[in-house]
Design goal:
The chain is of the alpha+beta class. The chain is built from one helix and two strands; from the N terminus they run E-E-H. The protein starts with about 20 loop residues before the first strand and ends in a 16-residue tail after the last helix. It comes from Pseudoduganella buxea.
Amino acid sequence: MTDPTMPSLSADDPERQPCEIWTRVMGYHRPVSSFNTGKQGEFHERLHFDEKRIAPAGAVP
């Protein structure tokens, strides 16, 4: 969402700082960049869900 009261900022590629993505794996946090190729692929295939929308066990839809 953009705010019309905020000025638009732009930066050339050399001025940009790369964003490092971290994730929680086996109880601790690690940067995704340290994963091997297969684990990076698994990370990108992950699905997000809304916990509130999940039915309780044994519930009939």
